[in-house]
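Inputs:
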Amino acid sequence: MFKDTMLDPAGPVSAATRDLFFDSVGLMLIVVLPVIVLTALVVWRYRAGNAAAAYTPHWGGSRLVELGLWFLPVLIVVMLWFVVWNRTHDLDPYKPLSSGQPPLVVQAVALDWQWLFIYPEENIASVNRLVFPVGRPVTIELTSDSVMNSLMIPALGGQIYAMAGMQTELNLMADRIGIYDGRNTMFNGDGFSAQVFNAEAVDVAAFQAFVAEARNAGETLDGGSFKTLSTPTIAGPVRLYSGVEDGLFQSIIASHGSMPHMEADTTTAPHAEHNP
Amino acid sequence: MNSSMLFGKLTLDALPFYSPIAAGGAGVIVLGGAVVVGLITWLRAWPYLWREWFTTTDHKKIGMMYVILALVMLLRGFVDALMMRAQQAIAMNAEGYLTPDHFQQVFSSHGTIMIFFMGMPFLFGIMNYVVPLQLGARDVAFPLLNAIGLWLTAAGAALVMASLVIGVFSTGGWTGYPPYTELSYSPTVGVDYWIMALLVSGIGTTLSAINFIVTIYKMRAPGMKLMQMPLFCWTALCSSLLVIFAIPGLTVAGGLLALDRYLGMHFFTNDGGGNVMNYANIFWIFGHPEVYILILPAFGIFSTVIPTFSQKKLFGYNVLVYATMCIAVLSFTVWLHHFFTMGADANVNAFFGIMTMVIAVPTGVKVYDWILTMFRGRLRFETPMLWSIAFIVTFVIGGMTGVILSIPPLDYVFHNTLFLIAHFHNMLVPGMLFGLFAGYAYWFPKATGFRLDETWGRRAFVFWVAGFYLAFMPLYVLGFMGAARRMAYYDQPEWQIYFVVAAIGALSVLLGIGCQVIQLVVSIRHREGTMDLAGDPWGGQTLEWSTSSPPPEYNFAVLRQVSALDAFQAAKEDGRPYIWPTHYEPIEVPRNTALGPIFGGLAFVLGFAVVWHIWWLAAVGVVGVIGTIIVRSFATETTRIISAEEITATELRWHAAVRARQEANS
Amino acid sequence: MSVQVRHHPGINLSHARPEDERHTEVTVFGFWTFLMNDAILFALLFATYATMVNRTAGGPTGPELFDIGNAFVETLVLLVSSFTFGMGAVALKEGRERAVTLWLGVTLVLGLGFVGLELREFASLIGQGATAQTSGFLSSFFVLLSTHGLHMLVGCIWIVVMLVQVSTFGLSRQVRSRILRLGLFWHFLDLVWIVIFTTVYLPAVAS
């Protein structure tokens, strides 16, 4: 039932996330289980009908017990701090994944209500379909041509927002072949529910075939065809573009607020870079 | 859209005929309103309501009106919840019965109502009723401000309700993130209704909070030190302080968004140098403390109910006070965890993740304190206690999922999914709502003189708790599967069964609410059997139980000298629970005033006018508000005196009830 | 209760009876609480300005626009108005009704003068095409300043009301308490302005 989710990881990021999940839940159960068990025991033993149980109406505190109460949660939380600090850095979505191969760069643009994926090295683009080679890291550079979106492929790992006028980044990798669900998780209007796409992890030959298929698509993606594409569309079809205008991704970012001073944003989101 | 001088953007198109369901909802509201108005007119109850309730400055009546408002809005918010559960249960590869636009309005109004117009009024109602009584005070510091706070909250709620009949509501969720809520993406009046409702009620909440802070610091019974206050008063204080520090965030976020929408400014727009990330920061600097504003007073209720029904002293009072203060302070240091996925640096995310976990420590300590309060007690399982026990067990599960979400890499996976929805309902339903229900059952006999029916109360409890688990545990599972929040439909067949179970859970909650309605009716009908005017039905430990039920307008004929925690319990153990002097002094109380309803009415008119761009009417509203304040500042006769004879008569009636009660017990 | 009367700094009411003292204590404490709330509001507007200051969207920047001379005069006017209000408070303490009226009147003139100077600056900016709609930077500038300006206007209306009340009721307990709270408000706005001057105008000159 959890096929192709974090609990059935298809890549190193989601596998590490799953391990982190079980580690942290295990630590927390040390605090949580006693609470549930103790509550049940105490409620049963000290019910008013049970005259055999002790009754100390004036007992309102004990230094030693109170210290102990702080000690246990503090201990667990301090252990979690180390987990959080290390794993947050290990699993930083901006961190390139270690692999023998250079990452495949994909530029994702959130539209109303579709996803555009530009493959700059291959000079092709696809809409509502993301194809990448298995075993090779994928660096997804994100922006939005509309409102705030968030790209997530649950089988592979987490999500990062896509925001207009800014570029964010998400590094993922698949280590088994498959077609995984991808979607926008950030509510953005009428077509939100249908803003899904297939993320296809394929072998190298199939990826080459995909690139060839796109190159034969005929239509190229430039300012004009992008404008047509970016009109609000619900459950739009898969499209391929045989070529992409140079610097289109950067010009989409630049079209939303030309900001001469990009360092201003370090206060809120240092990684969310602007177009220089 | 065209705009006329007289009606602004308001035309007949604003009537909700865009969908039969919306029209039906509007019809129910209009019809319901008409029935209530008709009934009141038929009973000729308007003068009574105006004199005794609408114009009152008595904190007890204001508290009851808050609770009534909250219960009405609970019904509205719950209908929204039912509609969502029904939609998602059937919308597998299908459109369901709601259009996306309508579905979006429903989830937006559900969140907005449950937080701002159910949770807030409910807890401010209970705080209003209980805090001055627990402090042994005759009144709050600013009775008029208090009344205005109620009416502004009601005006905000009325704006949300009005959007159902005239126009539409926001589709931007309760958080209203731009740029989606900017004019270019949300051109209808929905977002404007949302902003105006929040701004108006935000002012009301701020006024109430100022009132509580001053009441708690300055109006305590003679001799009562801060560390001798009942714990509920401490939580009310922390909650009010949080309001003072947090609500400006809501005002600024909403206000700047409104300026973008009305005047074409560029705070959060995609173009012109707007910065959406600033909205997320400001909103959550308000939004996270808001959660503690809602939950801390409920902790206070549990800390009152559990010792009473354990017939034992509260364990670790000092620790609980410090833990409450810790939570209040720390709640301002964690806001960024609401947007770990916005692309911040790993150091920043890790820092806020760690700060979030720190909050879990005082909360965990509190839970242990409550269990130790029950330890070696004599537990009676009346409904307030049942809610409290269900809270402890359920809340720790929500706490655990909260810590999971505070770990940034896990948040990347669970953010914006139904796991998140399950988590915060898992905090707020047991943490806040069960607490409010416990408080409602616990203090009901204080406010009315008779108890709520126990049998129907237990039925409601069972359906609510079962309904909660059925409705939200499947959402955790769906979150693991990657199901996003706010989906009007979906295409994953394996999700549907969980949505169906969740819908069954919602139906169980419906039965629970049904039981609560029946409980109220049955309790009123059979009130003779549970009538207890003596005022201490539960064996209470704090001062509100040391006066009659319902208390007189002046609360206490004689102010008590307090020298210990749990003052009433201490007095009982001394063998002198009541102070009955031989003669009474006259008492000064605030006069009734129409200013509450006037300000509420003006705020509603102003909000409505701004929503529809009816500028002359907005000007009338502004001038009205300023004019009313100035005119009021010239009023001199604002209090009246209750004579010693009247007080003596009232007190003697109560003494007789107490004696009758004591004889019956012995 | 009278044993425990604690005096707040800033509510120095002579001839006060104990219950007056208690009443004033409660209202003044409430007013401080309100000011705390208002201070947070301004803090958030300052924070917004700080995040928006470079978001000029190709439009004019602060150093290009701001007239430090005008802002300096505004600062002086406001500082002097705080002084004149202080003189009014001294007169209030000594119960000199005419002096109170006079000093309040002078403060009102200075307050209105400040609002006038601010409006003149706004008009000049708008004349140069630098409006609140031009860029995120200018939106945050105009909103920060006009929020302060609106507070000033409320302060001025409040002074007018108090002038009428002084002539109607004399220096009654209520009136004295209100004038003292008005003073808190007025000095608070002065403080906010100082922060505006140092965070909005001075950096523009320095850069």
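Residues 16 and 32 of chain A are 24 Å apart (CA to CA). Flag for discussion at group meeting.
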